Amino acid sequence: MQTESHSKITKDISIEDLIIQKPSSIKYLMDKGIRCLVCGEPIWGTLESAAKEKGFDDKEIQIIVNELNSA
């Protein structure tokens, strides 16, 4: 069984790396309205670009990063 890594997450992490490093982030991002998977395939790009695509500003993105790191 894989365990989640405890490396620091930043807004510049790729969605692919984020879900590999922290699989629980999929549900968290989906709950925020940030799609990180489509038909089972990861969306390419960074956490920041995916969040901005959904209208999150820099302050809100930092909150997301902080929450992902503390989860």
> Can you summarize the main beta sheet?
2 strands, antiparallel
Shape: globular
Overall residue-averaged pLDDT value: 84
Q: What helical percentage do the residues reach?
A: 40-55%
What's the gyration radius in Å? 11 Å
Total domains: 1
SSE arrangement, N to C? HHEEHH
Structural class: mainly alpha
Count of helical stretches: 4
Distance between the termini: 19 Å
Regions with little confidence, pLDDT below 50 for 5+ residues: none
Strand content: 5-15%
* Count of strand segments: 2
The largest sheet has its strands arranged as: 1-2
Description of the structure:
Strand 1 and strand 2 form a beta hairpin. The two termini are 19 Å apart. The chain is 48% helix and 6% strand. It has a two-stranded antiparallel sheet with strand order 1-2. The protein has helices at residues 15-21, 25-31, 47-53, 58-70; strands spanning 37-38, 41-42. By secondary structure, the protein is mainly α. The radius of gyration is 11 Å and the shape is globular. The chain has one domain (15-70).
Could you provide a short overview of the structure?
This protein has helices at 15-21, 25-31, 47-53, 58-70, and strands at residues 37-38, 41-42.
Please render the helix and strand layout as text.
Layout: H1 15-21, H2 25-31, E1 37-38, E2 41-42, H3 47-53, H4 58-70
Antiparallel strand pairs: 1-2
Characteristic key phrases:
71 residues; single chain; mainly alpha
